Amino acid sequence: MAEFKVTPWEVEGKIDYDKLVKQFGVSLIDESILKKFKKITGEVHFMLRRKIFFAHRDLDFILNEYEKGNKFYLYTGRGPSENLHLGHLLPLTFTKYLQEKFKVKCYIQLTDDEKFLFKRNLTIEQANKIAYENALDIIALGFNKKLTKIIVDTDYAKTLYKQAIRVAKHITFSTAKAVFGFENSSNIGQIFYTSMQAVPAFLESVFQGKNVPCLIPHGIDQDPHFRIARDVLPKLGYLKPASIQSKLLPGLLEGGKMSASIPNSAIFTTDTPKEIEKKIKNAFSGGRETIEAHRKYGGNPDIDIPFQYLKYFFEPDDKKLKKIEEDYRSGKLLTGELKQIVIEKITKFILEHQEKREKAKDVIEEFILRD
Length: 371
Ligand code: TYM
Hints:
Layout: E1 5-7, E2 10-12, H1 17-24, E3 27-28, H2 31-41, H3 46-49, E4 53-57, H4 59-67, E5 73-78, H5 86-102, E6 106-110, H6 112-118, H7 124-140, E7 148-152, H8 157-168, H9 173-180, H10 188-198, H11 203-208, E8 214-219, H12 223-232, E9 242-246, H13 273-282, H14 291-297, H15 305-314, H16 318-330, H17 335-360, H18 364-367
Parallel strand pairs: 5-6, 5-8, 6-7, 8-9
Antiparallel strand pairs: 1-2, 3-4, 4-9
Bound molecules: ligand 1.
Ligand 1 binds at residues 8, 75-79, 87-88, 90-91, 109, 111, 114, 197, 216, 218-219, 221-222, 246, 248-249, 258.
């Protein structure tokens, strides 16, 4: 059986999500939760329907409280070491959707401290600058100006640090080692870092002086941080944060790994239409070697990366997606044709995104939380 590894800093191999669910101890999102979404918001988002957001911790609690009139707040984040790629947009886009549907506050943490501590060649000045670049992309996704606050760790340290040390006091080195796999050679900033990521999970409760439920949408790779936060926060008198986790959008090349050091493995929000076209044309395909073979035997959308991009993000309409899937499987739709559909959709999305990103420059300061 193929080996895989998922940590907040490393994703390797073909992920077996059933195994990961057991390993991490999260729960699968079941029909009763989908029904609850439908009851409250009148619909079920395609990422929920398709099990892209597939797992959770205490999501039932969050929805039940909401129905009783006890609103939660949202918290998500990003480690600024490079421009955002489409994978990063997945949890962020879904968070924005939840904010719109539930009309709730949202904190977005940009962890320049984390990226400085974990990336050998990144200075703190660079990480901080990238945080503000990433903030533009995040604002461009359409977060509500009145309800959303972006936190840049080193610039909001006066408030964060006071809370982070309260968390840190309850985490031993041996716990951090067991959860994250640190070694004696790991720098001590890395060992402390998870306490910074825990803070926005109770910050609203600190501000309001009473417990406010918190829901954290994120990619499944970040779960270890919140496992620790869920252990510690009750010791400080706060609720355990709830979470909703997405699968990871695969990289474009064979093996599905996405990496900033392999530019062709991911599409970035700053890519040009030419780059997008080249990357998708290069992407790993489930098509046959020749047109004749493809027409005769059909392609395999289950392993086809461009098809996965439609499923995860770019074709929200189930009927249209199904037609593409069937046509590809039967051989009616060729690999080149499928790729062309994907190129057009992504290019349109990115060009519109880049316009919104420009406009975000005028309002960025209104989103940044300062102490
Ligand atoms: P980062 O910058 O690695 O990732 C940002 C968010 O994107 C998710 N993600 C993906 N989702 C789908 N497909 C992918 N291929 C993919 N790659 C990354 C991550 O799971 C994450 O949700 N330490 C964090 C920053 C952070 C944070 C948070 C994230 C601070 N507080 C609260 C989530 C929630 C980080 O470096 O994320």
